[in-house]
UniProtKB/TrEMBL annotation:
Database matches in Gene3D superfamilies: 3.30.70.260, P-loop containing nucleotide triphosphate hydrolases
GO molecular function, one term: ATP binding
This protein's record includes keyword Electron transport: no
PANTHER family xref list: AMINO ACID IMPORT ATP-BINDING PROTEIN (PTHR43166), METHIONINE IMPORT ATP-BINDING PROTEIN METN 2 (PTHR43166:SF36)
Full protein name: Methionine ABC transporter ATP-binding protein
Cellular component per GO, a single term: plasma membrane
Classification lineage: Bacteria, Bacillati, Bacillota, Bacilli, Bacillales
SUPFAM superfamilies in UniProt: ACT-like, P-loop containing nucleoside triphosphate hydrolases
UniProt GO BP: amino acid transport
Length: 343
């Protein structure tokens, strides 16, 4: 759906030249929710604004749905932008217009006849869950509701791609989750390709299939979200994974655990993405004569299933313990490491 080659953007100030986006190449598949994460100043906003040429590239090529965006003239670009919706951190709504009129606005510009517009707006209001709020003004809406208007407005002309520029950064955690759920819902219902930039790894974890990590205008690491959680290569990526998983030193040391629990086996279970393993603990306790004591750990959910590590103490007869470890090793995708084996 989207192909980007050697994309560059320089800002020349009187003191220096800033390479905000520096030779960036990327391919994004149709229907994907693609996350771009980076710290402030990494170049994320500039990158996303280059995609619909809100910023003019200094070099490189952008192709969206077989159309070369970088070679369009002003009139062609205006039409092409109807295929690329965008939502913003601060919503960018028209304060003098109601919910309904904000959503109607892009349809007016596109020259859609009034009766068609009305029908489409009603449909969009329903899609984003704002039925009943049609006549409210932005000042009367909560942050989450404002972003829902932003989303409806961005979808008005049936775009193929939705760009999200820190769309949940101004929202509280609960509202963030409801907006992220809405984005997933829209992605599934409409098959829309979504590019989302953020500085929050939990946003990536919750809804993205693929992620690219940006630093100094470049993509330093990229891949399937679960793989990035499992094997972050770059220091900056490890820091982002720690936002969700915590750091190693936040956890009690393994030595301490082993000393405190002097019976049975101490086992580390590493969940790497299977959704079917969520009942693993109760399954083990039913299938074998073992007691399982959860000691420490953290599991989080990605779009591809559970990821994380827990430490457990398993108590029982040696044969039962060995059998249960064998079961997890051979019959599930959970990785097992026996840390201490008293039996
Ligand atoms: N119009 C501009 N003129 C000069 N420099 C700019 C301009 N826009 C962005 N920059 C610079 O380009 C770099 C990348 O900025 P950008 O806003 O894309 O980063 P970001 O990752 O989105 O960070 P943030 O989340 O803080 O916006 C920064 O050094 C920024 O100061």
């Amino acid at each position: 759906m989207i192909s980007i080659e050697g994309l560059r953007k320089q800002f020349i100030t009187n003191k220096s030249t800033i390479h905000a986006v520096d030779d960036l190449s990327l391919t994004i598949k149709e229907g994907e929710i693609f996350g771009v994460i980076g710290y402030s100043g990494a170049g994320k906003s500039t990158f996303v604004r280059l995609l619909n040429r809100l910023e003019e590239p200094s070099g490189g090529r952008i192709v969206i749905d077989q159309q070369e965006i970088t070679s369009l003239n002003t009139k062609q670009l205006r039409l092409a932008r109807q295929e690329i919706g965008m939502i913003f951190q601060h919503f960018n709504l028209l304060w003098s217009r109601t919910v309904r009129d904000n959503i109607t606005f892009p349809l007016e510009i596109a020259g859609v006849p009034k009766n068609e517009r009305d029908e489409r707006v009603t449909e969009l209001i329903r899609l984003v869950g704002l039925t009943g709020r049609e006549t409210a003004y932005p000042s009367q809406l909560s942050g989450g509701q404002k972003q829902r208007v932003g989303i409806a407005r961005a979808l008005a002309n049936n775009p193929k791609v939705l760009l999200c520029d820190e769309a949940t950064s101004a929202l509280d955690p609960e509202t963030t989750n409801s907006i992220l759920d809405l984005l997933v819902d829209i992605n599934e219902k409409l098959g829309l390709t979504i590019i989302l930039i953020t500085h929050e790894m939990h946003v990536i974890r919750k809804i993205c299939n693929q992620v690219a990590v940006m630093e100094n205008g470049k993509i330093v690491e990229q891949g399937d979200v679960l793989d990035i959680f499992l094997r972050p290569q770059q220091q900056v990526t490890r820091k982002f994974v720690e936002q969700v998983m915590g750091t190693e030193d936040e956890n009690e040391s393994i030595d301490q655990l082993v000393q405190s629990y002097d019976q049975g086996k101490i086992v580390r279970l590493h969940f790497i993405g299977e959704t079917t393993n969520q009942a693993l603990i109760s399954h083990l306790a039913k299938k074998y004569e073992v007691d399982i004591n959860i000691l420490q750990g953290k599991i989080t959910q990605t779009q591809r299933g559970a990821y994380g590590t827990i430490f457990v103490q398993m108590i029982g007869e040696k044969t039962e313990l060995d059998e249960s470890v064998r079961f997890v090793t051979d019959d599930t995708s959970v990785e097992v490491e026996v840390i201490r084996d008293v039996n």
